[in-house]
Amino acid sequence: MIALAIGLVIGFLMCIPIGPINIWVINTFIRRGASQALSIALGGSIMDFIYFYVILSGISLFTISDNAIFLFKSAGIALIFILGVKELVSKAKEIEVKQSSQSPVRLASGFILGVIIYTSNPTLIITMTGLGAFVKSLQLFELSQLNIFLASIGLAIGSYVWFVLLVFVTAKYEFKIRDRYLSKFVKISGGLMVALSLFMTFKLATT
């Protein structure tokens, strides 16, 4: 259970710094509702689990060619860039709060977006590798397959709990954000997505 607890704490804390994924979750919650916002978070949290499990285990679960990885990341970066530009160029009258939708298609699109944002980020491997090395250096639990699984699932749950808390806090100030800051918030969200895609492009081109 120590492995699970450590994973929970690390997963929660690593998501606190404000970044594109946090802004995108807030923006999606305000405009689309909690279900789609949390589906984005779920996609990211599942990728957290996969990355952390693979890194702690020191194994490769999939054999994927470098060309396939490059194409997948490029497609993800292009999608993030397009979504960011769409938010940036949207006019005030186009920015509106839509009814919350729980349709399977919208939830699936949110989940896929969360996966793409995470897997397209070249710095995620570095971050997860650092976290894995840190956890191993603590030597607080035996690195058995069970403990590695528990630590990884704990990290995923911890990150998802952060996003649930983020949505809960946003809900308390939802109407204020909608009435006074929605237009600016959408622009900030779009700007961060564009900046993230450009940074990803630079990292992809230099690796």
Helix and strand layout, with pairings?
Layout: H1 2-14, H2 20-32, H3 34-57, H4 66-89, H5 104-119, H6 123-138, H7 145-172, H8 174-205
Ends apart, CA distance between termini: 38 Å
Would you tell me the overall average pLDDT? 77
User: Spans with pLDDT under 50 lasting ≥5 residues?
Assistant: none
β-strand percent reads under 5%
Tell me the quaternary state: single chain
Structure, described:
It is a single chain. With 207 residues, the protein is mostly helical. The protein is 80% helix and 0% strand. Helix 2 (20-32) packs antiparallel against helix 3 (34-57) and helix 3 (34-57) runs parallel beside helix 5 (104-119).
What are its keywords?
207 residues; mainly alpha; 8 helices; globular
Question: Would you summarize the structure shown here?
Answer:
The protein is 80% helix and 0% strand. The protein has 207 residues and is mostly helical.
